[in-house]
């Protein structure tokens, strides 16, 4: 007997900024819609463990999509995209999950994203609070760390959009952002995903991640968690968005909830899903309307 996973994939056409895109997405489960967004330069394969988790999919319809130029979402047909420099903006980042939700006729979904997608969770809570019942920012903050921002886009493109730099090197560079406690097979899978990216896409994504996402203290204080609850989760071993960076945001947003995740790095959903789900499941239970359950304590996590 063949062994099938409970994941189905298909394409949907979305129009964003007057351009029609053929966007690939996978889904599993039923119930409250949960849109999940991938990190810069990667794709929705990062969520395969989540899509196969029955404790999530028994109550949530999980939808993982590939942004255009990523994974199975090709560049737009009918546009001379090869003559343009790919660069992701805040407006476009927000438009894609909004367009996907509208196309699939979702009723105020939950949005969760990691890294670039984590920053987006904050921007959606701030700018589209009536479109989402909650957003979950994994490795999100007010802005990216100054030490990375100061490199400038020219420096970023020299490093990640350079014909002399192979995709293998890009995948290897991600090791710097992963917890030393993460299982090697998961780490290797994450590397593989990054080695599959198209030329210039990772660098172009970093324009949003490093520059166009920049939440002021005033904007953070104005986030209304009664309209759209904001949850924040950050790994202890993340050098890009440290727990201190996320805590700065958490201290400004009235009513938001924040947990630091010991033994996890910048890619917790992929690098160690079994540990990450210990933080995610209580949040999903709370969103669903069940009794509030605290995330694991640091002592509990370290005892594993």
Cα(first) to Cα(last) distance is 35 Å
The residue-averaged pLDDT reads 92
Strand content: 15-25%
**Class computed from helices, strands and strand pairing:** alpha/beta
Portion of residues in helices? 25-40%
Number of helices: 14
Give start-end ranges of low-pLDDT stretches. Answer: 299-304
| Mass-distribution shape | globular
User: In this structure, how is the largest beta sheet organized?
Assistant: 8 strands, mixed
Walk across the major sheet and give the strand order: 1-2-4-3-5-6-7-8
- Count of β-strands: 8
Element order, helices and strands?
EEEHHEHEHEHHHHHHEHEHHH
How much is the radius of gyration in Å? Answer: 18 Å
Secondary structure layout:
Blueprint: E1 8-16, E2 19-28, E3 32-37, H1 48-51, H2 54-57, E4 60-65, H3 90-103, E5 110-114, H4 116-127, E6 134-138, H5 146-149, H6 152-160, H7 167-173, H8 184-195, H9 201-212, H10 217-221, E7 229-235, H11 243-250, E8 257-261, H12 268-271, H13 273-288, H14 298-302
Parallel strand pairs: 3-4, 3-5, 5-6, 6-7, 7-8
Antiparallel strand pairs: 1-2, 2-4
Describe the protein in words.
- By secondary structure, the protein is an alpha/beta fold.
- It contains 14 helices and 8 strands.
- It has helices at 48-51, 54-57, 90-103, 116-127, 146-149, 152-160, 167-173, 184-195, 201-212, 217-221, 243-250, 268-271, 273-288, 298-302, and strands spanning 8-16, 19-28, 32-37, 60-65, 110-114, 134-138, 229-235, 257-261.
- The protein has an 8-stranded mixed beta sheet, with helices on both faces.
- β1 and β2 form a beta hairpin.
- The longest helix has 16 residues, at 273-288.
- The protein is globular, with a radius of gyration of 18 Å.
- It starts with 7 loop residues before the first strand and ends with a helix.
- Mean pLDDT is 92; it is low at 299-304.
């Amino acid at each position: 007997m063949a062994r099938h996973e409970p994941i189905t994939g298909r394409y949907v056409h979305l129009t964003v900024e007057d351009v029609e895109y053929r966007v690939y997405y996978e889904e599993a489960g039923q119930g409250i819609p949960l849109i999940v967004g991938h990190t810069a330069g990667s794709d929705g394969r990062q969520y395969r463990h989540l899509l196969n988790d029955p404790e999530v999919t028994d109550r949530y319809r999980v939808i993982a999509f590939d942004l255009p130029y990523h994974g199975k979402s090709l560049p737009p047909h009918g546009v001379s995209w090869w003559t343009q420099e790919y660069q992701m903006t805040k407006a476009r980042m927000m438009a894609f999950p909004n367009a996907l939700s509208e196309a699939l006729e979702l009723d105020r979904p939950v949005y969760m994203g990691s890294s670039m997608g984590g920053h987006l969770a904050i921007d959606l809570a701030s700018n589209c609070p009536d479109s989402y019942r909650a957003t979950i920012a994994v490795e999100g903050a007010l802005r990216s760390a100054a030490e990375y921002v100061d490199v400038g886009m020219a420096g970023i493109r020299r490093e990640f959009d350079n014909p002399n730099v192979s995709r293998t090197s890009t995948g290897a560079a991600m090791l710097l952002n992963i917890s030393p406690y993460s299982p090697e097979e998961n780490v290797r899978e994450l590397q593989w995903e990054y080695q599959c990216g198209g030329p210039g896409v990772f660098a172009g994504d970093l324009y949003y991640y490093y520059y166009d996402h920049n939440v002021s203290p005033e904007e953070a204080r104005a986030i209304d968690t009664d309209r759209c609850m904001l949850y924040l989760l950050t790994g202890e071993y993340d050098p890009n968005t440290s727990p201190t960076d996320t805590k700065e945001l958490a201290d400004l947003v009235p009513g938001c909830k924040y947990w630091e995740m010991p033994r996890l790095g910048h890619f917790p959903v992929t690098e160690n899903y079994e540990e990450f789900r210990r933080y995610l499941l209580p949040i999903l239970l709370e969103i669903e309307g069940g009794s509030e359950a605290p995330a694991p304590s640091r002592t509990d996590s370290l005892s594993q």
